[in-house]
């Protein structure tokens, strides 16, 4: 079934405060930006599709199951997991290798249109939003890399991934962040009457975020919120309690802000019980939506300086992650991509091993 063209969507500007009277701006729908140097066809290269002509794949398009994604919770972790290109063919509209993971060449509007088409057809999926920190963790643990690459949609949340794609000569159209998708997918859900569930954040934050989302989109139906205590996922009983609440609410879209990889491992389990729902692993997006954590101004986000804004606001929690762990990884990533470009190395057919440590 071809993906339908939705009319341009009105979106609340991220520059303006949430809540209150709805002041919207119109965002034009852009087609996916195709890579001028796609990986060669073959078992290591996923098929290319465009949102306008793509036939959404069925959930059986690949052999990867949510139980296999959740393997780190039990014995047999990593066994039987296919390579990323094979596993992630589901809803990909064009996929390239950046920072050791597969990333879909899509805009935010492409993501919304693809999710709308899949939900209308009764099919669910996962959206992973890798940034530098997620790519760094995935580079060290194969199970986490497979967890990222096997998602139906993988979008570049971090600006260094966009810069890396430009250095490789295959530029992504731009960032697609969980902090933006929580608003645009809520707008979609409000327009189609699809219930959403908000999961994550400190006590009260999920409920506040739900209130802000419904203030922006009065037709939005929030079927449940939950802020599980820290460490709930350390036991099967804790995970089961959270899962039962989500499953009982029967949402069509679920926003999960628990941080990587906790949110994505939980989503993988929930996918088994809610195969017709879409899940967005969105990290701090719930806290941003609630206003509990301020988001960087637009100019800082466009300049790739959102990390600096957050570092100033939460130095104790983020200094080591950003300065000790992520900054060297980002520098190595960009340096490696620049060297590849200068040497005229062709775009790899699968995510590079260069940054795995």
From TrEMBL:
This is N-acetylglucosaminyldiphosphoundecaprenol N-acetyl-beta-D-mannosaminyltransferase. CDD domains: Glyco_transf_WecG_TagA. Residues 1-19 have a biased composition (Basic and acidic residues). Pfam families: Glyco_tran_WecG. Keywords: Glycosyltransferase, Transferase. GO terms for molecular function: hexosyltransferase activity. Signal peptide: none annotated. Residues 33-48 have a biased composition (Pro residues). Residues 1-58 are annotated as: Disordered. The lineage of its organism: Bacteria, Bacillati, Actinomycetota, Actinomycetes, Streptosporangiales.
